[in-house]
Specification:
By secondary structure, the protein is of the alpha/beta class. It is built from eleven helices and ten strands. The chain binds adenosine-5'-diphosphate (ADP), magnesium ion and zinc ion. Adenosine-5'-diphosphate binds next to helix 5 and helix 11.
Length: about 325
Amino acid sequence: MAGTGRDRTGCRGSGTPSPDTGTEGRADRGRVSSGDPRFAGSPGTPEPAICAFCGAERHTEGRILLGAPIWRRGSPMPCQCPEGKADWLRMEAEAEAERLAWRKEAADAAMRRRARRIAGESGMGERFLQRTFRTFEAETAEQRKFKAVAQAYARTFDDRLPKRGEPLPGRNGLVISGTKGTGKTHMAAAIANEIMSRGTAVICMTERNLLGRIKQAYSPAGRADENAVRAMYERVPLLAIDDLGKEKATEWTLSTLYAIIDARYERAMPLIVTTNYGARGLAERLTPKGEDKTTADAILDRLSEMCESIVTGGESWRARQ
Ligand SMILES: Nc1ncnc2c1ncn2[C@@H]1O[C@H](COP(=O)(O)OP(=O)(O)O)[C@@H](O)[C@H]1O
Ligand SMILES: [Mg+2]
Ligand SMILES: [Zn+2]
């Protein structure tokens, strides 16, 4: 409620002149207007601007500090005519959009730096950068299809990210399975490279390096780092886990992989997985010897909900070289 007589200046009894003579009866918080006759002709009182729509004077807002007005820099107050108000709102909206874009760019850049720090030395080096769509030769119909699916995925990636206030994207990931040497890693890297080249942060790592990076942070001192690494795996716009099922499974690898995949599932974040195994083989590979497959099945269940699948075929590229 305005005008309750509460002293909001926090200067009760300090002898500061009362600011309660501001603009249009709105005396709160010591605001004053350069149109106030008390300031007319004082040095430093800003000249009024003229409203481009109605010709009225637009004054500048100020605040009283130690008995003198401090004028706000930048533009004078909006005119209260309809066109003036509308113009002001439009400019405010533009400035806000600019601020948001700037903040998003800063957040993206920070995300890219963190992704690079985590994955930097483990596979996303020179060789990774050379695995692109351009260097993937599609000779057979199967390869052409594989390449087309992967390219379409990369091209439409931004649409696959969850967005605040919009329904969750369905199936926004890929599982690429098939025998050794059929270009699975190459294609996962090609997608990652394409998305990265557009400024989006990506982590593309083998299961081994991905888990290794968490273990590396495993020490009393590395605790914060471990959490940061896990958080990145959960939040980076694209996580690609190369060669899932290749490492020897332990309780820890299983629960850690489940935690990462489930967190991305909950957030509807895109995930790419490559594997040499089919679904049943993969569940077996992910489960430690003699343990039951409940958790591995849960991983497969998540993957089936999150990902489209592509099965690569044909002869091994490696064998041809
Ligand atoms: N269609 C292709 N065109 C060009 N290079 C390929 C193609 N398929 C595979 N390669 C290359 O052959 C090697 C093995 O492929 P890779 O992607 O590692 O196979 P996978 O991950 O399926 O075992 C890599 O050096 C890769 O760049
Ligand atoms: Mg591979
Ligand atoms: Zn006006």
